[in-house]
């Protein structure tokens, strides 16, 4: 296990039902098994603003997206300052289930203004690696048992379009999340190994 002075931040992105939580948890466990200090975290958080967002989750779709974008950005600043930064300084791997690209894709896509969302999120640094799990919205909705605030296929298509732009400009690394889980997990491991120069083979 290499000794690291500064940790690495890996975020997982995708529309609801893409399997982010399963895949990100698997990577976290793999890194831990290898002896790396690591920390798993999610957005929205359970801190002050994140809890507020979660409390109103059922009504979130009807709230103005400008307002939501600002709430998510405020939650993220608190998340970064109080949690992520400290872990990275201690040399941890931080695995985030959603981070800044969720806002750019969701609020940016729904507002048709990803650049504004990017600007209000410029107080937090980008992750070292952002992995995007791609799935067709119709398939994602079929997969998902519990419906989320953005369970409408036409909304999810707008969100996916922004994610695709972020793949094209190199900010996200895409994985086809419609493949069998074992293949998705294998591909994610390979990406992490090659991009971050690690060996996670058992
Ligand atoms: P979450 O509870 O992570 O749902 P899931 O596990 O299904 O991904 O996220 C709740 C919802 O919040 C999800 O639909 C995506 C949305 N969201 C945004 O719209 N913008 C954001 O910046 C973040 C972090 C989440």
At CATH's second level, what is the architecture?
3-Layer(aba) Sandwich
Q: What is the CATH level 1 assignment? A: Alpha Beta
Give me the strand/helix succession. Answer: EHEHHEHHEHHEH
- Main beta-sheet annotation: 5 strands, parallel
At the fourth level of CATH, the homologous superfamily is P-loop containing nucleotide triphosphate hydrolases
Q: Beta-strand level of the residues, as a percent range?
A: 5-15%
SS element count, helices: 8
Average pLDDT, rounded to a whole number, is 93
Please provide a written account of the structure:
With 202 residues, the chain is α/β, with parallel strands linked by helices. The chain has one domain: 3-Layer(aba) Sandwich (Rossmann fold), CATH 3.40.50.300. The protein is built from 8 helices and 5 strands, in the order βαβααβααβααβα. The longest helix is centred in the middle third of the chain and has 25 residues. The chain is globular. The chain starts with 7 loop residues before the first strand and ends in a 6-residue tail after the last helix. It binds thymidine-5'-diphosphate. The site of thymidine-5'-diphosphate has 15 residues, from helix 1 and helix 4.
